[in-house]
């Protein structure tokens, strides 16, 4: 493509290090779409004749049909998807193919193609996250009153409902979707027509190509447009945070599925066995979701470091922008799908969860609160009295609500029989009815709000 200035061809090493076709062939649909928008505009503006524009557009359709049928050929000499397509176009329609590249450069071309690709990746992530939210809502609805221990420091803290716990992840997914949506709004501007870096002397119509490709408007500064990869970073950062949330959810399932917990049986379809230990059912999918988060975050770091030292405008370093984005998008899509299946199809052992809440002195705060409310004892003193009760229950090996009234009154005479109402795990969760709290009614309300929000999106 630049043979005019060069006496010698590239070395084998140059060809190999330069070639992006092995990965950027993933952009072929976007590349064809952007070229068709460009050539239609060139025709409409009289920059190429209407006949040439037609010939080129038909040729591009033909190339696309070949890619669809046979895949994109990988010839390192043709470097990237843009030159591969142009070269095939020339084989098919002859020298008129050379008019396609009028008033553009690969710099605005790749920036445009890549934005289109990332925009689709955002839409896919959003659809996947919505399905995960629906699974979380359905299970939360089912388990709005199922009691489990709530943890701080992974120590039993207070009883909560499983529905409440699951809806916490719904909220994380809601923020993730909003981050992707923000990124989409910000990125949806067309770099096409920025040309190599400075714009072009041809009378192009950037509004027209922007509109044809579904962008809101053309980018405002050509130097920025060809060297900006914020859109890819915005996507990766949203993907990282999302992967981090999925990893936390995966970790919950890994812990809950362990034998000492026994809170959940994972779906067979998302587990594996051991080749030597027949009793084992391993949470591999969940572990890989947890592992993939590390890789997604690594992809984000890779692109940030690639970009941090680059002066305006395009530098070839930027060709390295695509592999981390493609990798992260694949890992994220798989992780979302795996967690959706896990949430939808796991079997929760609610009896075991309730038992764990009862055995962990999870209602100790309720006893302290009762002493404050009913006996007008200052909270600090109530905390101390409750500590003594827990110590006694622990020594006797019984839950708090199985200490006798005599024993409790021995610890503090102001306690009376009404206290037993406050000591059950059911009473405890029912009492936490503040907005957003764990009481079954509050969980039902959270579920109803979430359903309404999703319905509004339709
Ligand atoms: N394959 C290149 C990339 O992905 C396309 C842009 C090349 N531009 C250039 N001036 N060499 O970044």
- The percentage of residues in β strands lies in 5-15%
The global form is: elongated
Distance between the termini: 48 Å
Give the names of the bound compounds: arginine
What percentage of residues falls in helices of 4 or more residues?
Answer: 55-70%
Computed over alpha carbons, the radius of gyration is: 30 Å
Low-confidence stretches: none
* Oligomeric description of these chains: single chain
- Mean pLDDT equals 96
What is the structural class?
Answer: mainly alpha
Biggest pleated-sheet summary:
2 strands, antiparallel
Question: Spatial order of the strands in the main sheet?
Answer: 1-2
What is the element string, with H for helices and E for strands? HHHHHHEEHEHEHHEEEHHEHHHHHHH
Count all strands and give the number: 8
- Total helical elements: 19
Structure, explained:
It contains 19 helices and eight strands. It has 458 residues and is mainly alpha-helical. A two-stranded antiparallel ribbon has the order 1-2. A two-stranded parallel ribbon has the order 3-4. Arginine (ARG) binds at residues 20, 24, 80, 106-107, 110, 314, 316, 318-319.
